[in-house]
Specification:
- There is one protein chain.
- The protein is of the alpha/beta class.
- The chain has a single domain, classed as Rossmann fold, CATH 3.40.50.
- 39% of the residues lie in helices and 18% in strands.
- Strands 3-2-1-4-5-6-11 form a seven-stranded parallel beta sheet, with helices on both faces. A two-stranded parallel ribbon has the order 7-10. A two-stranded parallel sheet has the order 8-13.
- β1, α1 and β2 form a beta-alpha-beta unit.
- The chain is globular, with a radius of gyration of 19 Å.
- It binds uridine-5'-diphosphate (UDP).
Length: 310
């Protein structure tokens, strides 16, 4: 197959490219390297099945020849990255989604959008099923990301209804693992770097907010199952193992055998208080569930951070 992956130089995108190349597909990555890294693609450039287009998805995407799959991942995705790049984030989710849908339409390709648990905002119910409409601040500090992804979901749904685009949407919950950027402010990498350096762990707020962390190989397996399936549904892809941020800090300190203490800092505005996916739909329709437990995944990630810490 010929597979176009926008955002293929990013954290999750890189793992996805690797999987598709392993299966001998042709992969074309479209990425503007705003948050993705060219170095992530270095392992692939040897492959005759790989090509890279240095392009922002807010521009017209010209691909010659047939395309079977379009996967639209391109977007700044960490709170630091999207608040640092608000306009680009809005355009990647809106114009970028329309452009990638246009590509899928022109090529009669299957389409997948990576959406986010952020579409649930600060949820009133837990766990969050796909049927929950969310509670999002439409103009708050996270709105450039949350609303861009909500627009993107609306665009995919409309193209599916009007043009019969063979589309699916996956809502990714917090994902972690090797190849995360060490400086993009996400909690898992922040805590591991701090623990390894013996610095205090920065806990925002009291640390009683919860997240559910999914190891990247599980997330990628879920994306591929959704893409391969005949279903045009929306799927939560995440690990329902919910923990508080304080528990995460304690686990990382213990696994790294660190002596780090804790440094409590102000909680950012609109930081969601809880996050836990209901994954029964992905289990039932895609036969997918995560396999890697938190300690196993953290140990792999710690090993990778150690090897990449300068
Ligand atoms: N967080 C923290 N310390 C850090 C980084 C993040 O306490 O150094 C908290 C943050 O406030 C949030 C959670 O960890 O409640 C997850 O943050 P992240 O930026 O990884 O992603 P989010 O799930 O908020 O999009």
């Amino acid at each position: 197959m010929n597979i176009v992956i926008t955002g293929g130089a990013g954290f999750i995108g890189t793992h996805l490219v690797e999987k598709f190349l392993e299966k001998s597909h042709n992969v074309i990555v479209v990425d503007n390297l705003l948050t993705g890294l060219k170095a992530n693609l270095d392992n692939f450039t040897k492959s005759k099945n790989f090509s890279f287009i240095d392009l922002d998805v807010q521009n017209h995407i010209q691909i010659d020849g047939e395309v079977d799959y379009v996967l639209h991942l391109a977007s700044a995705a960490s709170p630091k990255a999207y608040t640092d790049n608000p306009i680009n984030t809005l355009k990647a989710g809106s114009i970028g989604t329309i452009n990638t849908l246009g590509l899928a339409k022109a090529k009669h390709a299957k389409y997948l959008l990576t959406s986010t648990s952020e579409v649930y905002g600060d949820p009133e119910i837990s766990p969050q099923p796909e049927s929950y409409w969310g509670r999002v601040n439409p103009n708050g500090v996270r709105s450039m990301y949350d609303e861009a992804k909500r627009f993107a979901e609306a665009a995919v749904s409309s193209y599916n209804r009007i043009y019969n685009i063979d589309s699916r949407i996956v809502r990714l919950f917090n994902t972690y693992g090797p190849k995360m950027k060490l400086n993009d402010g996400r909690v898992v990498t922040n805590f591991i770097v701090q623990a390894l350096n013996g610095e205090d762990i920065t806990i925002y707020g009291k640390g009683n907010q919860t997240r559910s962390f999914c190891y990247v190989s599980d997330t990628v397996a879920g994306i591929i199952k959704a893409m391969d399936s005949e279903s045009n549904e929306v799927f939560n892809i995440g690990n329902p193992n919910e923990i508080t941020i304080l528990q995460l800090a304690e686990t990382i300190v213990q696994l790294t055998e660190s002596k780090s203490g804790v440094n409590y800092q102000e909680l950012p505005d609109d930081d969601p208080t809880q996050r836990k996916p209901d994954i029964s739909k992905a289990k039932n329709i895609l036969d997918w569930k995560p396999d890697i437990g938190l300690e196993e995944g953290l140990n792999k990630t710690i090993g990778w951070v150690k090897a990449n810490l300068n």
